[in-house]
Amino acid sequence: MLKRNLWKLTLSFAIVIWAVWTLLPLNDQPFPDYAKAQSRAKTAEFAALLKEAGDRKAADKAPSAFVALKDIAKERKLDLSQYFPNLNLGDVPNLERKNSILLDYLLKESKGKVQLGLDLKGGVGVTLEVDPTLAAAKAGTGERDQKDKLGKAIEIIGNRINAYGVTEPLIRAVGTNRIEVLLPGLNTRDNPEIVDQVKKPARLDFRLVHPFLTPATSPNEVPAGYEVMTLENERRNGESSVEELFVKRIPEMTGEGIDKSFAHYDQYGKPEISLQLTKDGRRQFAKVTAEIAGYTEQLKQRDPNARARLAIVLDGKLYSAPGVEKEIDGDAVINGSFTDREAQSLANALNNPLDLPLVVKEQYEVGPSLATDAVSSGLKAATIGTVLVAGFMITYYMVGGVVAVLTLAINMLILFGLMAMFRATLTMPGLAGIVLTVGMAVDANILIFERMRDELNLGKSLKAALVSGYDKAFITIVDAHVTQVLICFVMIWLGTGPIKGFGVTLAMGVFSTLFSTLIVSHLILEWLIEKDIVKKFPMLHFFHSVDVDFVKWAKPAFIGSWLIVLIGIATVVYKGSAIYGIDFAGGDVTTVSFAQKLDVAEIRHVATQSGLKDVNPSYQSTLGDNKEVLKLETVFGESEHLLTALQKAHPEAKLVKEGTNQIGPSIGSEIKWNAVLSISLSLLVIMIYIAFRFEVGFGIGAVVSTVHDILMTIGIFVLFGHQFSAPMVAAILCIAGYSINDTVVVFDRIREELRLNPTTNLKDVINLSIRRVFSRSLMTSFTSFLATLALFVFGGGVIHDLSFTFLVGIITGTFSSIFIAAPIFYWWHRGDRSQAEKHQDVKPAYEWTGSSKASQ
Fold it and tell me: Which of 248, 598, 708, 832 is deepest in the core (most CB within 10 A)?
């Protein structure tokens, strides 16, 4: 046994050890402690630098030890890499950039490997405002035009932030001229480098360098309309120099004229960016360069080598200032001191340059949008749910239940190890993916155990039942998980925000479940049985015989369920936009000062007592003055009602309104349409796969039953007065996944029974198949229902809404696989077995074939 399974044992141990190693450290480590521990040379000297950095932070001369250490190195021109000979930073001649790369790496590695998202942990907030001075200088910035450009800016900033690896940021309009950017799991003291990127949404300007004056020649006088900018010039030998120039504030031309940009190397092997201009852009560029060439002619009268210059400014930073000798009627090139990564990043940014000039209005740290009460209640509910599921599995399947719980723990360890490896941020949609992963893992074990029960009932030995049970369950488990992977690939490909987050987590969960169930669980059971440690495999059996004609009852069940779906759809249409919460429709955000801090749970309680449903309270600390304020997000027109209720309930808090702004939706139309497109394409892919893997009738049945489950869940959700929030997108996707998983199990059994019962009519085959998987379906649904019920009873806030949706989805998913999917397959073939057998996979398996003339 050991020799035969040595590879499984070795692989299992290796993956478990890898997962543990990848997850460590579980929590963030203080940057100074981590940096000190990683130092390998001149450790005492580096420790002294860290102490000095800590003293600067303590004296409020730097926001963090990280920033203080960077400042010290810059002031003294220290090469910090000398303390880390074990880290290969490559050939980076610019000392400041080299130190920045090193410190950024150390900061990243000091963090816990799995970070929580904005909804679970909070993060950094930055409010950007349209610069009225620069906006007025641009033509065509009326209110309508500015609103359109604000929407475009939100889209572009989202793309930029995602490029820096920040998962699921929240970006939305505030009022008519501001954008709020919330970055999950960060704080400004330890992550200034990412916050800086938010402060400077990429914008390209071509500006005039003053042709006659420089700060060196006129140190005490800045010409009107100009500002002092610094240009860093890096030579090929690695040395660098700094040059100050007077650069015009208002650009001669912006990035609007860029058609395409790409990074490449110049003749000396240095990275540069080529800009391909539009027709209008070329015309503008020719006009600008012609003007500067005119200044060059004037300068040449005094110095034949002098050139007037054009400043290329990106994100408010001067990147290059080439001399212009003549009019340029063509494309442009930005060259400067770039690393390969910077050049590629700039090229990507320039493909979507922001047209609207933005400035930082406010910067603050935010608390979690789910609030501490929701997170703690969610953890409590998840713990209770896990204990209930584990207790039920052990009670019902006994030895098998213990093995299932053990492999589920290994499954979760591997899943979080994968998340840590890819630096995934855990958000509520991600938690939904984990919930579905747990459901699939439990289902796979139940499927195997029920198959073993069937084999034991046939009189087989325990060892033979194990082999046969795994063999027969294998293809069903693989088919169910392949459909999930296909859904994940579509969501990752097309999805954004919560859709993509759900898809990524679920894809990881599929692979961890397949490994833990088919390798680890099988290995443990085989060892227990072959070593005679387990001589019996006892299991409870609540449903010994289910003698129901499911096909006969399918028609009234089908009609009744679709009537409920129609009622739900009618309710959705009747309520219209009222079904959307703040995440989808936007709302009001009121800033409130206070003398006494109120618990978030109490704020939610007062809101509920006042009849307000969608309320998001959070605390924000403004940087600089460290002033903490309460932010109350409500649907439009309800902020005054909530504030009045809070003032009446808690006069001791002395709540004072400081202002109200309207906020745009965090789930914009693009994400909504992406959700619809992702689900639609997923259904199409599933139909094609099942039609290819099984038969066309199966594919039609799977799609119709999944659509039924989604529509029914949405309808019931709205009927009970709930409103849609961002996590509900993930909940709907989770239900689709659960429905497909359950349907594939039923279809796989029908396919098997068609092969094993060549003379039985189609109706009886379907009834027989459903009866044989009925116990498994109910056991899986019951365990999932048990865990979700704990979330519903003990969870709060959005977790309550999510669990309600899951409860409905579990019931509808089990119902539809029996009374929708299987009957549609039957009706599709009009009860004709011969039509269903055309696909190779469902043909009956005969043990003989005739080839003689007599048999023909």
Answer: 708
Q: Which long-range contacts (C-beta less than 8 Å, at least 24 apart) are formed by 619-627?
A: 619/366, 619/367, 620/125, 620/364, 620/365, 620/366, 620/367, 621/364, 621/365, 622/362, 622/363, 622/364, 623/188, 623/363, 623/364, 623/365, 624/363
pLDDT digits (tens, 9 = 90+) for 174-195: 777 778 787 776 655 555 555 5
pLDDT at 217 over 50: yes
Q: Which pair of structure tokens corresponds to residue 602?
A: 């109490």
852 three-class SS: coil
Q: How does residue 205 score in pLDDT terms, banded at 50, 70 and 90? A: confident
Instruction: Answer left, alpha or beta for residue 327, where phi above 0 means left and psi between -120 and 50 means alpha.
Output: beta
Note whether 341 and 279 are within 8 A (CB). no
Residue whose C-alpha is closest to residue 366's, from 59, 640, 600, 580: 600
- Spell out the residues 6+ positions from residue 799 whose beta carbon is closer than 8 angstroms to its own: 370, 374, 377, 378, 381, 791
Length of the chain: 856
Q: pLDDT tens for residues 538-590?
A: 998 876 667 888 999 999 999 999 999 999 999 989 988 778 777 777 788 88
Least confident of 4-13, 509-518, 724-733: 724-733
Average pLDDT of the residues in 610-635: 75
Amino acid identity of residue 613, one-letter, is K
Q: Under 8 Å CB-to-CB from 21, ≥6 apart: which residues?
A: none
Both tokens assigned to 203: 């914008």
Alpha helices in 356-461 (DSSP H): 371-397, 399-421, 428-457
Question: DSSP strand E in 66-191: where?
Answer: 115-116, 123-130, 170-174, 178-184
3-state SS string for 314-343:
ECCEEEECCEECCCCCCCEEEECCCCHHHH
Instruction: Give the span between the Cα atoms of 143 and 127, in whole angstroms.
Output: 20
d(CA 525, CA 694): 31
The residue to which tokens 């799977």 are assigned: 702
Let me know: does 466 contact 525? Beta carbons within 8 Å: yes
Please, what's the largest Cα pairwise distance for the chain?
113
Position 489 scores a pLDDT of: 83
Residue 596 in this model has a pLDDT that exceeds 60: yes
Rounded Cα distance between 68 and 192, Å, is 12
Q: What are the structure tokens assigned to 703, written together?
A: 């799609």
Long-range contact pairs involving 318-322 (C-beta distance under 8 Å, separation at least 24):
318/229, 318/230, 318/231, 318/245, 318/247, 319/346, 320/231, 321/209, 321/231, 321/245, 321/247
Which tops the pLDDT comparison, 193 or 334?
Answer: 334
Domains of the chain, each with CATH number or no CATH: 29-109 (no CATH), 123-201 (3.30.70.3220), 205-353 (3.30.1360.200), 371-536+550-574+670-842 (1.20.1640.10), 587-663 (3.30.70.260)
For residue 494, what are its two tokens? 């097309």
Cα–Cα distance between 664 and 179 in angstroms, integer?
9
Question: What tokens appear for 98 in the block?
Answer: 């080299």
CA 124 to chain centre: 17
pLDDT at 162: 57
Q: Which burial class, exposed, middle or buried, applies to 139 when counting CB atoms under 10 A from its CB (0-12, 13-18, 19+)? A: exposed
Q: According to DSSP H, which parts of 458-599 are helical?
A: 462-494, 498-515, 522-530, 550-575, 582-585
Mean pLDDT of 407-429: 83
Q: In this structure, what token pair is assigned to residue 624?
A: 């600089």
Helix, strand or coil for residue 216?
Answer: coil
CA distance 144 to 176: 10
Beta bridge pairs of residue 260: 276
Name residue, tokens 């922001």. Answer: 354
Amino acid (one-letter) located at 391? G
Q: Is 438 helix (H, G, I), strand (E, B) or coil?
A: helix
